[in-house]
Amino acid sequence: MAITAAMVKELRDKTGAGMMDCKKALTECEADVEKALDWLRQKGLSKAAKRADRATSEGVIASAVSADGKTSAIVEVMTETDFVARGEKFQDFARSVAEEVVANAPETLDAFQDRVNDLAAATGEKTVLGRFVRMSLEGEGAIGTYVHSNNKLAVLVEVVTDKPANETVAEFAKNVAMQIAASNPLAIDADSLDPALLEREREVYRQKALAEGKPEKIIDKIAEGAVKKYCKEVCLLDQPYIRDDKMSVQDLLKATAKAAGCSIAIKQFVRIQLGA
What we know:
The protein has helices at about 5-15, 20-30, 35-40, 80-85, 90-105, 115-125, 165-185, 195-210, 220-235, 250-260, and strands spanning about 60-65, 70-80, 130-135, 140-145, 155-160, 240, 245-250, 265-275. It is of the alpha+beta class. The longest helix is centred in the middle third of the chain and has 17 residues, at about 90-105.
């Protein structure tokens, strides 16, 4: 397969590596961008700059919670400009959709299309309903809901308990939702991660250590250490707690369970960033 300028640009955007290094990586990997990405990391040439997902357009993410606190929803509503998105009419509409999702549990948002058209006519801008998530407790516990102050990032997290949840559990759920918003984990714990993803990370660091001339007998140890570090970055329970980095989220969970007098587990979470 021919190596195109678009492939080189994609690889540069993902890694921050130089153009010639990207071309060499693509040549070595027969124009496979994903393999080239790993090749650059193995050679220590990828800067692996973490970049927040950029919104493709303007809008808001609205939330709503049921009266009993056991059901919550977040809804993404898109428009053309931030000026319209910050308007009271637009934000009221977004909240009303979230409230109806909580109340009626629709499978799609198709029923709102006439109202979307009316809003578009009133604002003079194209309006689109994007993703939506409704989360409801099946037993005891709490739903943590967090919407960032700019209304462009929202999180729902389900925390389950073996006894009726109290304020301590509810506060924990809210704090975990804020943690997820800030740290963007891929999974709750290492067991929830795709094994292929972990093996890919392991192999990247094996090859990197070999390329650096490390003794073969410690290669696997180096790779496992790197994977553990990776899990601390992407697994929610392993991450340092954003309000006290001397403890992990797992430590916070254990302390909260003791204080609340019940068992606690994080069952699921959803994080939506506008347009991402």
